[in-house]
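Readers of this paper often ask what the protein records in our data store actually look like. An entry from our holdings is shown next, in its original layout:
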Amino acid sequence: MKSKIIKNIMTVAMSLILLLPLMIAVVPETKAAETDPAYSKIKERGVLVVGLSADYAPFEFHTTVDGKDKIVGFEVDMAKEIAKDLGVKLQIKEMGFDGLIGAVQTGKIDVIISGINATPEREKVIDFSKSYLAPKQTIMVLKKNEAQFTTDVNSFSGKKIGAQRQTTQETFVQNNMSSATLVSLQKVPDLVSQLSAGKIAGVVLNDPISSAYAQQNKAFKVIFPKPNESEGAISVAMPKNSPVLKSKINESIDQIVESGQLKTFQKKANALMFNDQSFWSKYGNLFIKGTLITLALAAIAVIIGIILGTIVALFKLSPNFILKAIGNIYVEYVRGTPLLVQAFMVFFGTQVIGLNLSAFAAGSLAMGLNSAAYIAEIIRSGINSVNYGQTEAARSLGLSKNKAMRYIVLPQAVKNILPALGNEFVTVIKEGSVVSVIGVGELMFQTGVVQGASFKPFFPLLMTSLIYFILTFGISRALGYAEKRMARTSR
């Protein structure tokens, strides 16, 4: 009897030993099915960070609600519902469309809800939820030119056709309209401006967008090309390998579509697009906000530029070979690369090393680092313009080299470099428009927002040009006054 019991115990033990590897393999899968890094991050933070480009009415756009500027649209309402279903708060980060995929890859945002299509190329680097909309591709033309074109895409042969950069509309032109010339721009309002001016023959847009433009402006006509191809599955984009987050979002999308909420959100967005407020009451605060941010960017950039530029200039003038090499390399590298590239490098690069800078902070830093290279050359030339006899006289009076530079040379150099520094400040104000691609809401960014929300491509540009002129003219006059005062006191 005892031997039989021992035999049974041994059999059970051996079975457990044999099953142990399988049990070990199954446990992690069970845990993986409960969470993933992206979902865990959202739940721990208690906030779903959604990236979008709010120049795409009725999907997402700016308007004034109860006297306050708000980002609205049916996808914004969807984002609120998804965040609610996840049990977290919603935070919206606005940026240029072509920066969204990089932002989700580097963790700047959690998901993209911005009319983005699931394409094979994009699916290689990010994941997508199930589709909640599949609009048709359309070609918007000027009504006065509609007789020249038919639903056959070949009727646009030899013409310039516009499409938003890195979208399925761009791919549609490349694949189906090879005999036409593609014009790719970042923002839809810029494409519509070119169409209005006759620079291009048509713009490829999905039907909710083109229909909204045509409804607002009778000068436009919408053509549905044949074959009438869907632009693809509009979905929510998220980081790769996020099965739990994907599952949760899919459940939320099912509920939104099946309950009819999506149609309700679309009707609400259309009503907000065409309310009866005046242009300035709807969008005036955006111009004011953009102007203030532009001035803040320029001020911070110039302060960083002056401090760092002075250091770099002294490095270049140093007899120390290493310091001189550092100064030369910095100036040549920064001046030899576009500010646009530098803005992306700072915005995404700082995230990689663990610094989660806001778009404004990254934009200010990028502009400051860029400006420092030019200010370094301005200061270096100003120092060289001071007669070396001034340094010799200071040294003969017992001043050290550093004190001679600080108290004798630099004060005289400032008078020489002030006009050039003023020009640099004016230049920085205008260059602020470049950092709009990472979502800094400066003046040109807000102008694009107004263009997209108002369907008026030219008038917002006119307003912006006047604001820029007032800013630069005022600063130029103030600097001219300061120069005269300094010239008077130096006599």
The longest helix spans residues 279-317. The chain is about 60% helix and 10% strand. The radius of gyration is 30 Å. The chain has a mean pLDDT of 84.
